[in-house]
Design a protein that fits this description.
The complex is a heterodimer of chains A (about 450) and B (about 450).
Chain A: H1 18-24, E1 25-29, E2 35-40, E3 46-53, H2 67-74, H3 86-93, E4 97-102, E5 107-114, H4 118-130, H5 136-155, H6 158-170, H7 184-189, H8 192-202, E6 208-214, H9 218-228, E7 252-259, E8 264-271, H10 278-290, H11 296-304, E9 308-315, E10 322-330, H12 336-352, H13 357-374, H14 378-392, H15 401-406, H16 410-420, E11 426-434
Parallel strand pairs in A: 2-6, 7-11
Antiparallel strand pairs in A: 1-2, 3-5, 3-6, 4-5, 8-10, 8-11, 9-10
Chain B: E1 6-8, E2 21-23, E3 28-31, E4 37-42, E5 48-56, H1 69-76, H2 86-95, E6 99-104, E7 108-116, H3 120-132, H4 138-156, H5 159-172, H6 184-189, H7 192-202, E8 208-214, H8 218-228, E9 253-258, E10 264-272, H9 281-293, H10 298-306, E11 314-317, E12 325-333, H11 337-354, H12 358-376, H13 380-392, H14 398-401, H15 403-409, H16 412-422, E13 429-434, H17 436-445, E14 450-454
Parallel strand pairs in B: 4-8, 9-13, 9-14
Antiparallel strand pairs in B: 1-2, 3-4, 5-7, 5-8, 6-7, 10-12, 10-13, 11-12
Helix pairs in contact in B: 1-7, 3-8, 9-12, 9-16, 10-11
The chains are: A alpha+beta (about 450), B alpha+beta (about 450).
């Protein structure tokens, strides 16, 4: 009982519905500069409302690192009309839920709620954007929360700690050097003035994109936006980030010694910002190497040679030149030098041999199918639309993503691999397990 | 088709916001002659089709000495089949842009796979071949088991993930199937023959549930499902184990896991809870939302929002086929371990003594009804998961279609009665993971005898 015989002919996937999606999406910019993007979808009686502020850890300075992320927390701690705890409480009472995230580049506030709570959400969001409160007692308590977040995601996480060290080594000048959550000493010393200055700098309506997907009508959204958000005055956005990372002139190696049973390894290569045409090529390379059990690195390193437990590789969208990251966990008894060597062999193979057409087709199919999967939920679509608007400069580029991926050729892959995956351009961070228990 | 969930107004919603009752979209359920139950739920929109195959049994069907057998079996389904080597299977799957995940929980093995609509035939062929005709090549078995051993080491390097396995092992103990957490010894015992025998016994028509959801032609899908899954041997239906509720401790129990480099303590405070089919489930869902199930819960409000002791504090009522645990879970810096545990216990005590108010109950009801559609019914794979649970736990479609009415029907007395019976304050089970040299004395405060182990030792609590 078999339907598949021999090698599968790999056919292409196309974004069949790109035009429908594009038609359903409407946009308008308020007079204060806030751009509003709306996609109507009446599938479930709920709405995803996302605010993308173009401010992140890249807009910080030494001594106040982690401030964007701390600020993200403070946005839930009370404003003029809705006091401490009211934002969450009123949302919960209305059947809504929320979260937020901060990256090197952006701070994003994410609300999901029944469409019946639409006006309340506009009122609460406008309140905190316009009139956030700064209560010293709450600041102290929230400082503890953020430090606890750091303890969980970095100090007590081998992967998190190594990642922080690797990036700090790869970037010596640009603000991508410091972690989004902030250095421990900075977390301990942020002041009220730091917070106020950050708010004044980043939270301008003209520095924000609002995306709404779900059970709403465009006209209704714009009416509410004009009533609640448009009166907020525009002001200067954050000053440009001046520092550029100087080109790396040789391999950098760093180790982290820590009690652990297994090592960890991160290899970073400097690559360009999101709008650079080489980035989609790098996305294809990440897929070829690590997506799925047929990918090159999984097949060789996880399966055949059993060198690592897992291997992940890719680049995240960034406003400034960033890094392509490989993360691997060597198996017990495997010298991390061995897994590292195999990674370099596979990167060299990308440079020397054109990727066979069928393999490239497979990677493109995986990427397009994954894109569909991100479109399944109103939350996924709100996040994609906002990310494309911020990182690509235009949300509509999402609808051309299939063509961008489709255009990548085997020659592009060779050229891009040669350009970026050189020994000179890489940073290698290794967690070396300490064998003995620490004696207290 | 734009309207994915049929809406009907709830007749009497007591809150100010009248939330519309969401209902399952139309679907069919049919038992094939070999016993396989097939659900078909067509819905257009995105050109994707989702398959969910459930095999009854899960962890409770494993012999105690072979904990992890069902999970290893699931992992190996795609690693070589009657018609494909492991490499060919992965090439075909990835070439279609498809996904395929197989894993186990307390009562089932589940395979979830997704393909583009145009690849329906190839998709169902791959899924059914993996589920019904795996070859379990010896070298793949060896590789999978050895990788799992390193997986345990990796897990124990990360306290946030490891604490849950320590909890299960310690709370349920060696006599309960949920206490059989895969460890170095059980993985070492598993042989290829065990896997073959398990597959032969469990992956049979009478144990299979197949759910197809998404963009597909129902008539063609039915024919394909009959050709593939319908051809499996009927076998013997798995005889579910009788419920064995974890007994309440006669005195508090404390497990302390030493991780000398930890700068914070992770802890779980547990007591016996309920099984999924309990008539108290809706009342408990509402109560737990208030106690530790959302951001503004009592636990998170005190431990995070008001005092900044932690990034997050929560509580959970396990909902498996057999009675599980009800527990508080959080973490705090080493120095505030005692303060955080005492605070969590104090919140529990206040809940037990004072119960909740009508206003709190109304808020929990609104929250539950508002968050259910986007979390459980938005995508076809979410709906497939809901259908699978209904079948597995013997619940009817009213579980969804009448959910809002059932939520609205919970009275304050019923909620407070559930609190009295389940959120008890005495003889609890404590699991602490952190720097033992600094919290050993704190641990002693919560129980007369502290069981202590280190994160480097093989095994979990046993």
């Amino acid at each position: 009982m078999r339907f598949l015989i021999g090698a599968l002919v790999v056919c292409s996937i196309l974004l069949a519905q790109d035009t429908r999606l594009a038609q359903d999406t409407k946009t308008q910019t308020l007079s204060n500069g806030m751009k509003v993007i709306v996609q109507e979808d009446h599938g479930i009686p709920n709405v995803a409302m996302y605010f993308f502020y173009r401010i992140g850890s890249r807009n910080e300075r030494p001594g106040a690192t982690g401030l964007s992320h701390f600020f993200e927390h403070m946005m839930f701690n009370g404003a003029k009309k809705y006091g401490p705890g009211q934002f969450d409480k009123r949302m919960d009472d209305s059947g809504g839920n929320n979260n937020a995230y901060t990256s090197n580049d952006v701070t994003v506030y994410t609300d999901w709620f029944p469409s019946t709570a639409l006006e309340l959400m506009f009122d609460m969001e406008a309140d905190r954007i316009r009139d956030l409160a700064f209560d010293p007692k709450i600041i102290e308590s929230e400082r503890g929360v953020v430090y606890s977040e750091r303890r969980s995601s970095v100090d007590n996480s081998n992967g998190g700690m190594l990642q922080e060290l690797a990036r700090a080594t790869a970037f010596i000048a640009h603000p991508y050097h410091w972690p989004v959550v902030g250095w421990p000493s900075d977390i301990e010393s942020w002041t009220m003035d730091d917070l106020k200055a950050h708010f004044a700098m980043g939270y301008a309506p003209n520095n924000c994109v609002m995306v709404m997907v779900g059970d709403v009508h465009f006209d209704q959204v714009m009416q509410l936006a004009r009533r609640y958000l448009e009166p907020i005055p525009r002001h200067d956005p954050p000053p440009p980030v001046r520092t550029k990372e100087p080109p790396q002139q040789g391999e950098r190696r760093v180790t982290l010694s820590k009690p652990a049973q297994l090592p960890l390894q991160i290899v970073l290569y400097h690559v360009p910002e999101a709008t650079n045409p080489d980035v989609p090529v790098l996305d294809v390379i990440g897929t070829l190497l690590t997506q799925g059990q047929s990918s090159r690195l999984y097949t060789r390193m996880v399966d055949k040679e059993q060198l690592v437990l897992g291997v992940f590789g890719g680049v995240q969208d960034a406003l400034d030149p960033t890094v392509f990251s490989f993360n691997m966990q060597p198996r017990s008894g495997v010298d991390p030098a061995t897994s590292e060597k195999v990674l370099y062999e596979e990167l060299a193979r990308l440079e020397s041999e054109p990727v066979p057409e069928a393999e490239l087709r497979k990677a493109k199919n995986q990427m397009l199918a994954n894109l569909y999967r991100q479109l399944k939920t109103i939350q996924g679509r709100a996040n994609l639309l906002g990310s494309y608007e911020v990182f690509q400069g235009d949300y509509a580029k999402l609808f051309a993503r299939d063509k961008t991926i489709e255009a990548v050729t085997p020659a592009d892959i060779q050229r891009v691999a040669r350009q970026y995956f050189s020994a000179k351009n890489r940073t290698v961070a290794t967690l070396v397990p300490e064998k003995a228990e620490v004696k207290q | 088709m734009k309207r994915q969930v049929l809406l009907a107004m709830a007749l009497c919603a007591p809150t100010t916001l009248a939330t519309a009752q969401v209902k399952l979209p139309p679907y069919t359920r049919e038992a094939l002659p070999n016993g396989t139950v097939i659900y078909l739920l067509p819905r257009t929109g995105l050109p994707l089709v989702s398959f969910r195959v459930l095999v009854k049994g899960g962890a409770e069907s494993e012999p105690a000495s072979l904990a992890g057998l069902s999970a290893v079996t699931a992992e190996l389904l795609r690693r070589g089949t009657a018609g494909h080597t492991a490499a060919q299977f992965s090439e075909d799957l990835d070439g279609l842009g498809g996904t395929f995940f197989a894993g186990t929980d307390e009562q089932s093995t589940s395979i979830t796979a997704e393909f583009l609509q145009k690849d329906f035939d190839r998709g169902i062929a791959l899924v059914s071949e993996a589920a019904l005709h795996p070859a379990f090549p010896e070298d793949e078995v060896r590789k999978a088991l050895s990788r799992r051993l390193d997986g345990l080491r990796s897990m124990k390097d990360n306290p946030g993930g490891a604490i849950n396995s320590y909890y299960r092992s310690f709370f349920f103990g060696s006599t309960h199937p949920y206490g059989h957490v895969p460890d170095e010894a059980s993985l070492d015992h598993i042989r290829r023959d065990d896997i073959l025998a398990y597959h032969k016994r469990m992956y049979v028509g009478r144990n299979l549930i197949v759910i197809v959801a998404g963009d597909f032609d129902p008539a063609a899908a039915k024919a394909r499902a009959a050709e593939t899954f319908g051809a499996a041997p009927a076998g013997t239906a798995y005889a579910w184990m009788a419920d064995q509720a974890p007994t309440r401790n006669t005195s508090p129990k404390v497990l302390l896991i030493d991780k000398p480099d930890a700068t914070q303590t992770y802890f779980i405070i547990a007591q016996p809870g309920v099984r999924r089919a309990t008539p108290d489930r809706v009342a408990l869902m509402l109560v737990n939302t208030l106690f530790g199930g959302r951001f503004t819960s009592l636990l998170n409000e005190e431990l995070r929002v008001k005092t900044g002791l932690t990034y997050g504090a929560s509580s959970r009522v396990e909902m498996a086929r057999l009675t599980g645990g009800l527990y508080i879970s959080t973490y705090t810096k080493t120095e505030t371990t005692e303060k955080a545990i005492d605070m969590a216990l104090d919140i529990l005590k206040r809940l037990q003594e004072k119960g909740i108010t009508a206003e709190q109950l109304a808020s929990a009801k609104a929250y539950t009804k508002g968050t259910y559609p986007p979390e459980r019914l938005q995508t076809v794979d979410e709906i497939a998961q809901v259908l699978g649970e209904m079948e597995l736990f013997g619940l009817g479609r009213d579980e969804v279609d009448q959910l809002f009415a059932r939520v609205d029907a919970v009275t304050l007395d019923q909620a407070n009665d559930a609190i009295k019976r389940y959120y008890r304050t005495g003889n609890l089970t404590f699991v602490l993971l952190g720097n033992a040299s600094k919290i050993r004395d704190v641990a002693k405060k919560y129980g007369p005898q502290v069981v202590e182990r280190t994160a480097r030792q093989p095994g979990w609590a046993m």
